Amino acid sequence: MTLVRAAIAIALKDLRIEARNRTALLTAVTFAVLVQLVFLFAREPGAVRLGVLAPSVLWITLALSGLVVLNRGFLLEREHAALEAILLAPVPRSALFWGKWLANTALVAGVLAIAFPVWILFFNVVPQPALLGVLGLAVLAAVGFTAAGTLFAAMTARTRYAELLLPVLLLPFLIPPLFAGAQASVRLLAGRPFGELAGWLRILAAYDVVFLMLAALLFPTVVDE
Amino acid sequence: MPDNGGYMVAAYVVVAVVVLAYAASLWRRGKQPRPSGRGDAGVPNGPTSPRPDGRG
Amino acid sequence: MTLSADAATRAIRRGRAITLVALLLLAGLYVLALQFTPAERFQGLAQKIFYVHPPAAYAMQLAFFLTGVASILYLLMRDARFDAFAEASAEVGMVLGGIVVLTGPIWGKPVWGTWWTWDARLTFTVIELLVFAGYFALRGAIRDPGERAKFAAVAGIMGMLLVPFNHLTVYLFATTHPTPVVVQTDRPQLPAAMLRTFLSGFAVFTVCYVGFVMQRYGIGVRRMLEEARDA
């Protein structure tokens, strides 16, 4: 139980910091809205209907704002040499991973909470119950890639090229959840039967489980001196 | 039979060029680090880092 | 430190000998493919790219897989030799992957009518190359040898675990790629002469890999020793 409690404490610490100055979340949300806007203008309005583009934009927004959030988590620790302090605390190393992951996932979810309604508005998505399913898919995808991202960010934050290196390392890991999520959400919005989604959901779930476990396993190696 | 031997030649040339170029790069990088060290003697001038196993 | 300059020199020398053999074998493979293997009726001579493209792809996968294995061993034993091997194998894998993505379109153009299709295996190769480009970017960004080895090992293991997911993804994404017709037990599809040349291709690229990786390993060990001396 100490693991869970320590993880939650670390996550709350991060979230409290973000809540206090609000800059990161505000920036990430602004970023997420801007990405969508950029997509609107990067198409031929007469030729490409918004509805066709909508699912892709949602997933790319999730991926890019996820990167922004992840990059921040460990740079924050580096700035104040706070990581060393946390490592001194008598909690298991993996608690740090779970805490960081929890905070990152919560932040991505926070960004999504605003970006998602904006997306519905911008792309004239018909409000329908299936949208809740799409949101669920986005969270399911975020769980896995923030796991890989938390691990990678812990490494890249120690280098001189953190902002450049994290996307390069992480984007290949985004491809499977992005693809499965996009496929499932297109089918969900088209009102296809659940049977057509099951395969994609299984891929997402398998991805989440594998990379959560692997990242938790490898994380202590990364932060150990 | 379609006449596309040119593609085959191009591919084979590409493979040969890449393999040879990499082999040449390894050859260059694998030369003894110190030019004064005698070729393949395996003993660079001066002691390198301490060698606990003491073999060789 | 379990690295030794003598061992590095030995690895380089043996690697050079094996590479020389590999180059001769590659020349032999060309002769075999061009002179002693019949041309395929429907695809024409371009089909003979078949004798180098899949073998290179296989050798690339072997290289990246062994990088992953060496990464695990490094984290378990903390022996710098595993790090040197992982790096060597990853670099050779990049070169072999380069061959795959260069010869793929050259084959695709006459057969599919277009240079690039987002076919599963080609896409997979590109993703793999990008994963390991990231691996080298990470290595290049870290100066401390111990930390570099540790982080690279983590990235190598992650890369290895990504392989099945990427395989699945790209196959579901699309495939116009010819499915393997070589190992079908019910009826042999490939004429014996073609099969012989094809399998020879695999052997040649395996020898290439071994020769390259041994040389690169020795070079890497030397570099690490220099680093340790300068530190």
Unreliable spans of chain C are none
Largest sheet of chain B: none
The total count of strands of chain C amounts to 0
Q: Approximately how much beta-strand content do the residues of chain C carry?
A: under 5%
How far apart the termini of chain B lie comes to: 60 Å
CATH topology-level fold name of chain C:
Four Helix Bundle (Hemerythrin (Met), subunit A)
Please give the number of β-strands of chain B.
0
**Number of individual domains of chain C:** 1
On the 0 to 100 scale, the average pLDDT of chain B is 73
* Most extensive chain-chain interface: B-C, 35 and 51 residues
Percentage of residues assigned to helices of chain C: over 70%
String of helices and strands of chain C: HHHHHH
What oligomeric state best describes the polypeptide chains here? Answer: heterotrimer
**Rg over C-alpha atoms of chain B, rounded to the nearest angstrom:** 21 Å
How far the N terminus sits from the C terminus of chain C, by CA atoms, comes to 14 Å
Give me the secondary-structure category of chain C: mainly alpha
What does the largest sheet of chain C look like? Answer: none
